[in-house]
Amino acid sequence: MRKLIRLIVKHLNCVPMLIALVAMIAAIPAQAQVSAPFLGTWKVTWQYEAKAYEATMTVTESGGSWQTANRRQNNACAGRDVPMKVNSASPTEVQYTLAFTDVLPGCRNVPVVLKAGTDGAVSGTRSQLELTLTRQP
User: Fold this and answer.
1) For residue range 78-96, what is the model confidence (pLDDT) as tens digits?
2) How far is 110 from 123, CA to CA, in rounded Å?
Protein backbone atom coordinates (compact mmCIF):
# COMPACT_ATOMS: atom_id res chain seq x y z
CA MET A 1 0.00 0.00 0.00
CA ARG A 2 2.86 2.41 0.81
CA LYS A 3 4.36 1.82 -2.62
CA LEU A 4 1.05 2.69 -4.25
CA ILE A 5 0.76 5.92 -2.24
CA ARG A 6 4.36 6.90 -3.13
CA LEU A 7 3.65 6.20 -6.79
CA ILE A 8 0.51 8.35 -6.73
CA VAL A 9 2.30 11.20 -4.92
CA LYS A 10 5.20 10.97 -7.37
CA HIS A 11 2.83 11.31 -10.34
CA LEU A 12 0.89 14.15 -8.70
CA ASN A 13 4.11 16.15 -8.68
CA CYS A 14 4.17 15.83 -12.48
CA VAL A 15 0.64 17.22 -12.95
CA PRO A 16 1.65 20.92 -12.91
CA MET A 17 4.37 20.17 -15.45
CA LEU A 18 1.88 18.33 -17.70
CA ILE A 19 -0.60 21.20 -17.44
CA ALA A 20 2.11 23.69 -18.39
CA LEU A 21 3.15 21.51 -21.35
CA VAL A 22 -0.43 21.22 -22.61
CA ALA A 23 -0.89 24.99 -22.27
CA MET A 24 2.30 25.64 -24.28
CA ILE A 25 1.22 23.27 -27.04
CA ALA A 26 -2.25 24.86 -27.18
CA ALA A 27 -0.69 28.33 -27.49
CA ILE A 28 1.26 27.43 -30.64
CA PRO A 29 -0.64 28.91 -33.58
CA ALA A 30 -1.68 26.46 -36.27
CA GLN A 31 0.04 26.95 -39.62
CA ALA A 32 -2.52 28.26 -42.09
CA GLN A 33 -2.87 26.06 -45.15
CA VAL A 34 -3.21 27.68 -48.55
CA SER A 35 -5.94 26.15 -50.72
CA ALA A 36 -5.76 24.85 -54.30
CA PRO A 37 -6.87 27.90 -56.32
CA PHE A 38 -3.76 29.79 -55.20
CA LEU A 39 -1.09 27.06 -55.44
CA GLY A 40 1.48 27.17 -58.22
CA THR A 41 3.77 29.61 -59.98
CA TRP A 42 2.43 32.95 -61.15
CA LYS A 43 3.67 35.82 -63.30
CA VAL A 44 2.64 38.98 -61.46
CA THR A 45 2.54 42.48 -62.95
CA TRP A 46 1.57 45.84 -61.46
CA GLN A 47 2.00 49.58 -62.03
CA TYR A 48 3.56 52.05 -59.60
CA GLU A 49 4.45 55.68 -60.31
CA ALA A 50 3.91 55.16 -64.08
CA LYS A 51 6.33 52.22 -64.16
CA ALA A 52 5.50 48.59 -64.90
CA TYR A 53 6.83 45.92 -62.56
CA GLU A 54 6.94 42.15 -62.87
CA ALA A 55 7.57 39.36 -60.39
CA THR A 56 7.48 35.59 -60.18
CA MET A 57 5.40 34.33 -57.28
CA THR A 58 5.47 30.69 -56.21
CA VAL A 59 2.67 29.75 -53.83
CA THR A 60 2.92 26.62 -51.68
CA GLU A 61 0.58 25.22 -49.02
CA SER A 62 2.62 26.86 -46.26
CA GLY A 63 3.89 30.06 -47.91
CA GLY A 64 5.98 30.59 -50.98
CA SER A 65 8.43 32.99 -52.56
CA TRP A 66 8.37 36.25 -54.49
CA GLN A 67 11.05 37.66 -56.77
CA THR A 68 10.65 40.95 -58.56
CA ALA A 69 12.24 40.91 -62.01
CA ASN A 70 13.00 44.63 -62.01
CA ARG A 71 16.14 45.66 -60.14
CA ARG A 72 16.67 49.29 -59.26
CA GLN A 73 20.16 50.54 -58.55
CA ASN A 74 18.92 52.88 -55.82
CA ASN A 75 16.94 50.12 -54.03
CA ALA A 76 18.97 47.24 -52.54
CA CYS A 77 15.74 45.46 -51.56
CA ALA A 78 14.35 45.19 -55.11
CA GLY A 79 14.91 42.03 -57.15
CA ARG A 80 15.62 39.73 -54.21
CA ASP A 81 14.06 36.31 -53.74
CA VAL A 82 11.81 36.90 -50.73
CA PRO A 83 9.87 34.40 -48.58
CA MET A 84 6.09 34.80 -48.47
CA LYS A 85 4.71 34.23 -44.98
CA VAL A 86 1.04 33.32 -44.57
CA ASN A 87 -0.80 35.60 -42.14
CA SER A 88 -4.23 34.06 -42.72
CA ALA A 89 -5.81 31.71 -45.23
CA SER A 90 -9.32 30.68 -46.22
CA PRO A 91 -10.59 28.89 -49.33
CA THR A 92 -11.23 32.28 -50.97
CA GLU A 93 -8.51 34.59 -49.59
CA VAL A 94 -4.89 34.44 -48.48
CA GLN A 95 -3.03 37.27 -46.74
CA TYR A 96 0.76 37.22 -46.95
CA THR A 97 3.72 39.23 -45.83
CA LEU A 98 6.61 39.52 -48.27
CA ALA A 99 9.36 39.14 -45.65
CA PHE A 100 12.01 41.47 -47.08
CA THR A 101 13.43 41.98 -43.56
CA ASP A 102 14.32 38.27 -43.45
CA VAL A 103 16.50 38.73 -46.53
CA LEU A 104 18.05 42.14 -45.94
CA PRO A 105 17.79 44.09 -42.68
CA GLY A 106 16.48 47.59 -43.26
CA CYS A 107 14.08 46.58 -46.02
CA ARG A 108 10.35 47.02 -45.50
CA ASN A 109 7.95 44.06 -45.42
CA VAL A 110 5.08 44.27 -47.90
CA PRO A 111 1.51 42.90 -47.62
CA VAL A 112 0.04 40.81 -50.46
CA VAL A 113 -3.58 39.66 -50.57
CA LEU A 114 -4.84 37.03 -53.03
CA LYS A 115 -8.54 36.39 -53.65
CA ALA A 116 -10.27 33.61 -55.56
CA GLY A 117 -13.40 34.61 -57.46
CA THR A 118 -16.45 32.41 -57.91
CA ASP A 119 -15.26 31.73 -61.47
CA GLY A 120 -11.91 30.43 -60.16
CA ALA A 121 -9.94 33.49 -61.29
CA VAL A 122 -7.32 34.73 -58.82
CA SER A 123 -6.81 38.45 -58.21
CA GLY A 124 -4.59 40.27 -55.79
CA THR A 125 -3.06 43.39 -54.33
CA ARG A 126 0.45 44.33 -53.23
CA SER A 127 0.38 47.21 -50.76
CA GLN A 128 -3.11 47.92 -52.16
CA LEU A 129 -1.80 48.16 -55.74
CA GLU A 130 -3.80 45.97 -58.13
CA LEU A 131 -1.93 42.90 -59.39
CA THR A 132 -2.42 41.07 -62.67
CA LEU A 133 -1.78 37.36 -62.12
CA THR A 134 -1.06 34.83 -64.87
CA ARG A 135 -0.63 31.18 -63.90
CA GLN A 136 2.60 29.68 -65.27
CA PRO A 137 3.03 26.05 -66.40
Assistant:
1) 899 999 999 999 999 999 9
2) 17
Cα distances (Å, whole numbers) of residue 49 to 10, 28, 52, 53, 80? 69, 41, 9, 10, 20
> Cα–Cα distance between 74 and 51 in angstroms, integer?
15
Name the residue among 55, 40, 137 with its Cα closest to residue 94.
40
The mean pLDDT value for 4-16 works out to 60
CA–CA dist 82, 28 (Å, integer): 25
State residue 44 phi and psi, 5-degree precision. -120, 130
Q: What is the pTM of this model?
A: 0.74
Q: Which residues lie across from 133 on neighbouring strands? A: 44
* 137: Cα within 13 Å, side-chain hemisphere: 0
Residues 6+ apart with CB under 8 A from 83: 63, 64, 65, 66, 98, 99, 102, 103
